[in-house]
Amino acid sequence: MCGIVAYIGHREACPIILKGLKRLEYRGYDSAGIALLNGDLKVYKKKGKVSDLENFIGDQATHSHVGMGHTRWATHGEPNDSNAHPHYSTSKRIAIIHNGIIENYAALKTVLLSRGYEFHSDTDSEVFINLIEDIHTNNNCSLEEAVRLALHEVVGAYAIVVLSEDDPNQLIAARKGSPMVIGVGENEFFLASDATPIIEYTNEVIYVNDYEIVVIKDGKLDIQTKEAVRTTPYIQKLELKLDAIEKGGYEHFMLKEIFEQPRSIMDSMRGRLIADQNHLMMGGIREYANKFVAADRILIVACGTSWHAGLVAEYLFEEFARIPVEVEYASEFRYRNPVIRETDIVIAISQSGETADTLAAIELAKSKGATIFGVCNVVGSSIARASDAGAYTHAGPEIGVASTKAFTAQVTVLTLMALMVAEKRGTIENSKLRQLMVEMENIPAKVEQALKLDAQIQHIADVFKDVPNFLYLGRGYNFPVALEGALKLKEISYIHAEGYPAAEMKHGPIALIDENMPVVVIATKDSSYEKIVSNIQEVKARKGRIIAIVTEGDDVIPEMAEFVIEVPAADEALVPLVSVIPLQLLSYHIAVMRGCNVDQPRNLAKSVTVE
Amino acid sequence: MCGIVAYIGHREACPIILKGLKRLEYRGYDSAGIALLNGDLKVYKKKGKVSDLENFIGDQATHSHVGMGHTRWATHGEPNDSNAHPHYSTSKRIAIIHNGIIENYAALKTVLLSRGYEFHSDTDSEVFINLIEDIHTNNNCSLEEAVRLALHEVVGAYAIVVLSEDDPNQLIAARKGSPMVIGVGENEFFLASDATPIIEYTNEVIYVNDYEIVVIKDGKLDIQTKEAVRTTPYIQKLELKLDAIEKGGYEHFMLKEIFEQPRSIMDSMRGRLIADQNHLMMGGIREYANKFVAADRILIVACGTSWHAGLVAEYLFEEFARIPVEVEYASEFRYRNPVIRETDIVIAISQSGETADTLAAIELAKSKGATIFGVCNVVGSSIARASDAGAYTHAGPEIGVASTKAFTAQVTVLTLMALMVAEKRGTIENSKLRQLMVEMENIPAKVEQALKLDAQIQHIADVFKDVPNFLYLGRGYNFPVALEGALKLKEISYIHAEGYPAAEMKHGPIALIDENMPVVVIATKDSSYEKIVSNIQEVKARKGRIIAIVTEGDDVIPEMAEFVIEVPAADEALVPLVSVIPLQLLSYHIAVMRGCNVDQPRNLAKSVTVE
């Protein structure tokens, strides 16, 4: 996830682009850059925020009427000056900005290297622009045609803009998977990841469709499909306010991020799992395969929501890879004198990659010789750098303080890891592995389906919005989901919600239950279904108000529960990715109804970089 | 802990004793027995409750004016008919009932066996009566003198009554450590562990002191010290009601059990730890020393409060014995497919020894070849029997549903285990081990001191009795204490209290904190003291109401906290035994003030024998 902006018209391009990039910083902010056409093609880029780029440009000449800019959220290559966009081709005559992931970049790069192309960054995007240059040169075709042909070569997701010194009054763009909108002004055009950089200049926009190529040349807009079929652009009037657009039409970043999950889960699997090709591969695991195969124990260190993802991973790794797993609060781990051996693998989970306690915990584990494996969302973050190997979650920047899409991305990546390690260790039946791989690919669609419960959940939220307490119960794979559901509610609605393994309820918490206590029970069909039905009856016997998350078609629990939320069936090992969705929505709607600041709840910070 | 009753006078002894035993069943109920003198010395005894004994006696002849009875709480030997009291001597001419533990019984038994004495039980008490018979025969002295000399031989605690066929109108009793009260009627005497079996016949009582020997013969009472110095008995008038006496003068069993802890902790160490003799020995560990030395991993399975004791044990075993420990909810452990190896040791913790989930968890672990070590309070319970080895906690019967003394007894036993295993593995410095052994012996005195905080805590309880929510925070060894403190409050006051590792607060729960939220912080002086002071400041900055448990003399935290409770300093590894005391008292007083049924909180059961 990155932000892109481009301009072609009669105004000065640079200030428009810089201002637009600032609006898009919610999409990424690890580095930023700008390219301006004014006879030659100048690129300015810098690690950091857009304001760092501004300072860097300073008084340098920026006069131009055609330009493009990018604010980055790293996916390939750490955030630094050279990995920042735009990227030149080897000849430096053309340049690209790119939002997305090119999955087959490694293979393309090998070919391009053999043909003498040079690379100054670790990005997939630089491969893209050299591929375009290669086709442009070899086929002796127009740049537009070269772009079109290049799009047939790349696998993955992209929104790109390409500028060339040889066509000083032209801007070429294309998209697949990543968003792009064109702003249509008077003799000027704007192009951006969303409408926020555009809206103060024009309210007429065109949403570019997947596989479309946009050419704006000499004041004319032309849109064709990848197959070179011209399309008639549909111009729409924007009626949204700025801050709403920034949130993609959602009222809050958190809601936007909840709804992004089918996509962010898919992004986290992209290039790593292709079931019908029997492809399951993560670079970090492959590199350390022997360590994982020989591992006596896996220690997982994390805090907060990441710790919950770690609990899911414990169940996955123990069940499939048959390695004993211990999940530790990073803060507790680092201050006691834990037993750490050189044969231990420590998995550190952190969305920001900057969580101070987690970072300190892995430094401790490293000093004892353990292998550190980082699972972070922010590329090049401190934890990613301090790890021996790792896997990024590719959820894109998470702005809402209460983590949602980062959690499901973590669980996705940890699931793939566990399956890959299980395969390497020979501890999983081939048929089971295949079944789970196919199921994993279906998860985004099931999440999409679970998101359709929104209206129903809003109704339930309205019923319970004023209660002071909540209990959340789950067993097995749904136990961490219960903890996570409770944490979400706690964080944003300030309702005291607590999660428990369902069977532990009898050992104390059941005393809390009376006719005023809502109890959320995650009771999808799995191996402990009968047991959790008993737990529901125990709650009911004490008059607790039951909200049950059940598998579609369940006809037993609806007889007992006050409210039932049906989620699509999924293998029990994968069900957390689906069953957590209604809990995220429930906490969101309750918090909104209580008038809480959902995106910036009191007392909390997005990334806890203090101890 | 057992209950004893005796009678000598003009009434029928049997019904008085049986009725008295029923009153004392709170002291133990695993087996019961009665001895009656009527020319010969008859003993009736049976596994089970007093009602089982009654059924067993049925229509058998019980006419007698001198007798004694016992309701047992097993310490040596499982609960069965032969281990029930009274115990005959080998000649069957004398018999004993005994409440307490004879620590040097094994050595005494060896000598007695060599002299031809026979044993029909596994008890230390049968050793005691044979020792008396041996002295009686060899020294050719009176039974009274034989008892007196025997008391010089035994090490430990006792309240005993001895009857002899040769002295049909005599009753001899003695005590050290275990309670005993004499009821003085008209030409009749009663004797019991507390006044409940006596009060309906007389309100004049004499409390027997330690090291006193009581002889009632031909209607006369004579009390002498162990050194044969006659003392003048102090006759007091009872003004208490029956149910109050049963609870030892406390309003509730829970409070009584809280105040019993100096004693129950000492009982749990008795015979296992003698610091100045450098003695640290637990039978179950000695037997399985090689397993512990070679252990790759310890798995602890438990539920509720026992699970919290397990968390303390995790820290102890990792720090001192350097064995990786994983603590699991028994219910979660058994339903997933956990990795269990033959080199694993599974420690199962359960007060009742009947917890269904824990029992099922160890059956699973056993089936995979792991060694099972049970830590239970009830001798001969299902978990004790299902274990390969174990250590009893000797806390005595716990009647209050909310566990208090069982928790500290568990932690005591687990601490001794960790230290003994550390010594065997050579992972602890000798000087550190010595220091901790001495410190452990001082813990009961420190608990006694902490109990003096009662009045202050009552005041704090009054301030917070009406709040709906509480947070409990601790780090390191005090993190499980925070969980336990919260669970206690939840169980008996129905206030939603939740425990957290202090540093995790920033990752969510801090959102709950405002000027209405009481936050109990356990902040004794230890290696993370500075960090928890920062956590207190974070709470304070959000206007949370801080109740801090601190080390005596702390002059930093009192500046920040609304209430400060000072506990005696203790080594940080042992501090849970001290720091948990004020939390037990706080929950107790709040519950009482809220009018809750402290001993039988709603929805809960003492021992959870269902899944």
UniProtKB/TrEMBL annotation, chains A, B:
PROSITE patterns: GATASE_TYPE_2 (PS51278), SIS (PS51464)
Annotated ranges, domain Glutamine amidotransferase type-2: 2-219
EC code(s) of this entry: 2.6.1.16
SUPFAM superfamilies: N-terminal nucleophile aminohydrolases (Ntn hydrolases), SIS domain
One term of GO molecular function: glutamine-fructose-6-phosphate transaminase (isomerizing) activity
Domain SIS: 288-427, 460-601
The keyword Repeat is assigned to this record: yes
Assembly information from the UniProt record: Homodimer.
Function in brief: Catalyzes the first step in hexosamine metabolism, converting fructose-6P into glucosamine-6P using glutamine as a nitrogen source.
Protein name listed in UniProt: Glutamine--fructose-6-phosphate aminotransferase [isomerizing]
